[in-house]
Amino acid sequence: MRSPICPENAALLEISREFRVTHMQTTDQTLDEILTLAAAHFKVPREKLSPDADFFKALGIDSLQTLDLLTRLENHFHVELPDYELQGVTDFRTLAAKIQARL
Amino acid sequence: MGEKQFRGQALSWQVQGGVIELALHRAPCNELGSLSLGELEQFASALDDLEKDASALILFSELKCGFCAGADLRELYERSQAMEKAEAARGVRDFLERIHRVLNRIDTAPLTTIAAVHGVTFGGGFELALVCDLIIADKMARFCFPELRLGLIPGFGGIPRLKRDLGNAVVRDLLLTGRSFNATKAQQIGLVSQVVSEGEALRAARATAAQIGKFDRQTAVAAKQFIKPVPHDELRREIDVFCELFSRPAVQAGLRRFVESTDAQPYLP
């Protein structure tokens, strides 16, 4: 059974997505959504995730879970993120900038 | 005479309500090695009997990680290390010939075949899904042909089948960049027929199979034979190209790097 995002966080993410669609999304907003999504899905307290943290360590994820995160981010932001653009990216802030470039 | 029900170490099958369900369940992520191939061959033999009572076949994975992570590269590396070069090359060709026979059998089965996929659907796993008439994906499915990182091309019929079903430009993009792509993209390019919520692919495949069962079987078989030719010449050529590439030292180095990798994206060069 895969772990779903809890309804409260799912509702917040949806509101956030709608906001992004109707307003110009900033990199800080993108970063905030990534942190909220990652915390909810990988069951890590949101306050323990900092923008410059190594997300592999902070989330404790392996290669399969990295693919899972990539797909969740693509689905959430409605973007396509070629794997090679994320090679070597380890912190949330750089990840947000990569996504921002494709919004 | 084939078995109506089977529970093996790598896969299982059963027939229920005119639908054959073939489930993959070999940890860690249904890697296709000699064990899986042996059981797939048993399934191919059993199909002659199973398909008499069925109109559809559903392939799916029971594992959380995904549909299938592809060929068992660890086994390929270890076996080729333990053999003389010529013997390893013969072993690889024999493996490819055998898996092509199985996949061609499923490809041409007088059934409507559905791959219900989720999560990792990479390399040989992607090629296994491609033998099916329809692919139904949950929104977390991810597809990739990562073989070039090893100095190889896909060897289980992936390129000819993808070219048969989609445009050559799509094949080049996936093959030459080695990037993975999600279910939404797969549906946009025409690879996936339905994208469903997380965990819902098998349910959607069963609903589709139930609908398929309402059609006249003979008509459905005639329609499939008309619309879905097997690209035999290209499949033969694929085996030859794979074996030519496999003989190069770079492939052993690539396999070793992959087997020893602790990288977060081991499928990238």
Description:
The complex is a heterodimer of chains A (103) and B (269). Chain A is mainly α and 103 residues long. Chain A contains 6 helices and no strands. In chain A, helix 1 (7-22) packs antiparallel against helix 2 and helix 2 packs across helix 6 (92-100). The N and C termini of chain A lie far apart (31 Å). With 269 residues, chain B is α/β, with parallel strands linked by helices. Chain B has a single domain (6-260), classed as 2-enoyl-CoA Hydratase, Chain A, domain 1. Chain B is built from 11 helices and 11 strands. In chain B, helix 1 (34-50) links the parallel strand 3 and strand 4. Chain B is globular. The mean pLDDT of chain B is 93. Chains A and B meet through helix 4 and helix 5 of A and strand 10 of B.
The CATH C-level class name of chain B: Alpha Beta
Which CATH-level-2 architecture of chain B? Alpha-Beta Complex
As laid out across the biggest beta sheet of chain B, the strand order is: 1-2-3-4-6-8-11
Compute the number of helices of chain B.
11
- Count of separate structural domains of chain B: 1
Catalogue the unreliable spans of chain B. none
Q: How would you sum up the global shape of chain A?
A: globular
Q: What structural class should be given to the helix and strand makeup of chain A?
A: mainly alpha
According to CATH, what is the topology of chain B? 2-enoyl-CoA Hydratase, Chain A, domain 1
- Rg of Cα set of chain B: 18 Å
Stretches of chain A where pLDDT is under 50 for at least 5 consecutive residues are: none
Describe the biggest sheet of chain A? Answer: none
Mean pLDDT of chain A: 84
Helicity range of chain B: 40-55%
How much β-strand is present in the residues of chain A?
A: under 5%
The total count of strands of chain A amounts to 0
Summarize the structure.
Chain A is mainly alpha-helical. Chain A contains six helices and no strands.
Topology:
The complex is a heterodimer of chains A (103) and B (269).
Chain A: H1 7-22, H2 27-42, H3 55-59, H4 63-77, H5 83-86, H6 92-100
Helix pairs in contact in A: 1-2, 2-6
Chain B: E1 6-7, E2 11-16, E3 19-24, H1 34-50, E4 56-61, E5 66-68, H2 73-81, H3 85-107, E6 112-117, E7 120-122, H4 124-130, E8 134-138, E9 142-144, H5 158-165, H6 168-177, E10 181-182, H7 183-188, E11 194-196, H8 201-212, H9 217-227, H10 232-246, H11 249-260
Parallel strand pairs in B: 3-4, 4-6, 5-7, 6-8, 7-9, 8-11
Antiparallel strand pairs in B: 1-2, 2-3, 9-10
